[in-house]
Amino acid sequence: MQLRKQQHNHLAEINRIMSMYQALSCRQLSRLFPELPCEKVMALLERLHKTGRLVLLREEGLVLLTKDCSPNQDILSAFWVLLDFLPEITYHAVSDFPTVLTFFTKSDAYDVIHVAEGKENLMNQVLSSLKEDAPRRLVVVDLPGQISRLNFPGICAFCTVDDKGTVQYYKTARRT
Predict the structure, then answer these.
(1) With contact defined as beta carbons under 8 Å apart, do 82 and 73 qualify?
(2) Are strands 62-64 and 155-161 parallel, antiparallel or unpaired?
(3) Angle 2-21/38-50 helices, nearest 10 degrees?
(4) Given 31, 95, 126, 138, which residue has the most CB atoms within 10 angstroms?
């Protein structure tokens, strides 16, 4: 009975996550449940797919809330950053532009912001009026060369995310 309750809780949590993020990779969902083997997470995704509660694209390694959803690269990249903070995360959610997602740990609040190459000036202008104090800002850039062109309040770190989900962090010497 306890096993079924845990399985039900995991299914409900996957549904909740997918309703927020719309599209994530299978690997991201697997990392979200470190207590479960990857095969178990995939079995849960298969079950939700068979019952029509989500769309599992096995070949692409993607999970979509509906067949009409398309992956948002900003969200996929920001979600890898979020996963680096597990198990400290107490809450997370998708945000509105210019922030991609927001999350809280036991001690801090973070906004994850993606700055596409060539959009540095726009993002500096949009974000220059923000307050410095909270939340802390993690800035995902496409290339490390963008870092020197970004200057807005609250930046605690810059990072890049590769296709495999590896996050590389960069700190700045200047106070931002």
Answers:
(1) no
(2) unpaired
(3) 70
(4) 138
| Residue 64 half-sphere exposure toward CB, CA atoms < 13 A | 12
Report the CATH number of the 2-64 domain: 1.10.10
- Looking at every residue in the chain, the average pLDDT score rounds to 92
Count CB neighbours of 9 within 10 A.
10
Distance CA 113, CA 136 (A): 10
Write a three-state SS string for 69-122: CCCCHHHHHHHHHHHCCCCCEEEEEECCCCEEEEEEECCCEEEEEEECCCCHHH
Determine the CATH number of domain 73-170.
Answer: 3.40.1350
Nearest CA to 108 out of 151, 65, 70, 137 is that of 137
Q: How far apart are CA 156 and CA 136, in angstroms?
A: 6
**Residue 59 and residue 65 in contact, taking contact as beta carbons nearer than 8 Å:** no
Rounded Cα gap, residues 164 and 153, in angstroms: 30
| Count helices and strands in the chain by DSSP H and E runs | 5, 9
Helix, strand and coil percent figures for the chain, each rounded to 5: 35, 25, 35
Report pLDDT digits (tens) over 82-136: 999 999 999 999 999 899 999 999 999 999 999 999 999 999 999 888 776 668 9
